Amino acid sequence: MACETSHEHLKVVILAAGKGTRFKSKKPKVLHEILGKPMIFYVSMAAKWTQPEEIIYVIGHKKEQVREAINCDGCKFVEQDEQLGTGHAVSLAKKHFENFDGLVMILNGDTPLIKGETLKNAVKYMEALIRYEGADASNFRGYRNEKVAGVVLTARVPNPYGYGRIIKDGSHIIQKIVEEKDATPEEKQINEINSGIYIFYAPYLAKVLDKLENNNAQGEYYLTDVIQLLREEGKDVYALEIPDYTEILGVNDRWELARAENILKTQFMHFWAVNGTTFHNPDSIWIEFDVDLSPDVEIFQNVMLQGETSIDEGTTIGANSIIKNSKIGKNVQILPNSIIEDSVIEDNAVIGPFARLRNNTVIKEGANIGNFVEVKNSVVGEKTNAKHLTYLGDAEIGKNVNIGAGTITCNYDGYKKYKTVIKDNAFIGSDTMLVAPITIGEGAITGSGSVITKDVPDNALGIERNQMKIIEGYREKMEKKHKNEDKE
Ligand code: UD1
Ligand code: CA
């Protein structure tokens, strides 16, 4: 992840130390994937939209794995070995913001649907609250409204269960946040919840963090208790209610993960659809984060596009096809039930139905790879056809070649893999076994059913076949023989 920084009075702290007990997983919660990317990736991406001066991650459970997935050289990492609560996690990051005359935004690592734009607007809102009119845009010194301590992003949700409830005093100012487990029955009725996203004036937050206590239902240091502590200091924290509550859905178990994934998938597909992609039965289609689609692409039901896959203009992807880490050119037809991985398909090629291409395969312009054909680590030249029941592995195949049905490159002797070269305009008869390493020359022909073990020169025929015999009257002979046997 690139780490461009520029907002001079903003730092971000992302909490990602928790185990995620409810995931019942060996993998840390924030590394569970949504459309091919770990959850923490989306939170980081949204954070970067605000262009903070610095991002600080609090990591703990399986911290090395998490640090590696975050993969940010310019970021700071703080280690929380025992997960004593969100307040404890933030207090460990305090050294990075206690002397900072600016804002600190806190994000939960398990809120992956939050949009960068929403965070940017929240920062603007906080700036407007804290800054007196005419203040210098680059810092708050001398112009700051000393009563404003922070903003909490909130939303009204259909089912507030599990979230902290926002208790307000009738205005936008928050009195306190009460966690589900500590809430009275009346407080549980409140449907305005804490998103876990906050923006504080950094020195004020730093000051009250030391006063947090863990005398609550969970025995944890709650970050949410800072609101009351700030209030006791005479400072105000405002609620900023965001209209689309789905942005702040927390992901605490695998069902919530599935739900978040579906929401994001629909958003991506909406984006591609308005940019010119046709989807047939979109609910059944799967498109990951790194996929790139050009206009006039048509995608049928149950298609999965995974990893870094791009599909160029005018291409059709037939039902039940899976394409992963591959580049598909213009006006290609991928017919149903084809599986393509780590490969390149050039313009106007026709693939499938039921084709399997993998491991650095390149299918050149206008080539045709048909039913039950597997191509591995091979280059198939322009306008070459391999239409039926074939295995091509470690092969380099020229232009205008015809590969007959049932052809197999015998590329493996149980120890090593060997290469097959088939030059331009060759004709490989049906059911040819090409025992590699081997070269079939330009314009050469192989007889059907041959086991080819020697190179075939240009324009020659390579055939390996016993003389076929015709035995006249054989039926009569058989009949006689069987009649005699019946008598015995
Ligand atoms: C938290 C909020 C709750 C809010 C909800 C929004 C508190 C006390 N509660 O609850 O008000 O409605 O988020 O989703 O903050 N983490 C650490 N170290 C810890 C504990 C947690 O890094 O010691 C991290 C977790 O990895 C997670 C985030 O903090 O990314 C939130 O922790 P979690 O336990 O999920 O809090 P919630 O119970 O969801
Ligand atoms: Ca949570």
Can you give a write-up of this model?
This protein is α/β, with parallel strands linked by helices. The protein has 2 domains: 7-248, Spore Coat Polysaccharide Biosynthesis Protein SpsA, Chain A; 274-462, 3 Solenoid (UDP N-Acetylglucosamine Acyltransferase, domain 1). The protein is 19% helix and 30% strand. The protein is built from 9 helices and 39 strands. The strands form 6 sheets. It has a 16-stranded parallel beta sheet that branches. Strand 2 and strand 3 (37-38) form a beta hairpin. Helix 1 (39-49) packs across helix 4. The longest helix is centred in the middle third of the chain and has 21 residues, at 254-274. The chain binds uridine-diphosphate-N-acetylglucosamine and calcium ion (CA). The site of uridine-diphosphate-N-acetylglucosamine (UD1) has 29 residues, from strand 1, helix 3 and strand 10. Calcium ion binds next to loops.
User: What is the straight-line distance between the termini?
Assistant: 87 Å
Q: Profile the largest sheet.
A: 16 strands, parallel
Kindly provide the name of the CATH class of the largest domain.
Alpha Beta
Number of strands: 39
Please name the fourth-level CATH homologous superfamily of the largest domain. Spore Coat Polysaccharide Biosynthesis Protein SpsA, Chain A
Q: Which architecture name of the largest domain does CATH use?
A: Alpha-Beta Complex
Q: What number of structural domains do the residues give?
A: 2
Look up the CATH topology of the largest domain.
Answer: Spore Coat Polysaccharide Biosynthesis Protein SpsA, Chain A
Radius of gyration: 33 Å
**Quaternary structure annotation:** single chain
Using the alpha-carbon principal axes, give the shape.
elongated
Summed up, the helix count is 9
Distinct ligands, ions and cofactors found in the model: uridine-diphosphate-N-acetylglucosamine, calcium ion
Mean pLDDT: 95
Uncertain regions spanning at least 5 consecutive residues: 1-5
**Percentage beta strand:** 25-35%
Judged by helices, strands and strand pairing, the structural class is: alpha/beta
Helical percent range? 10-25%
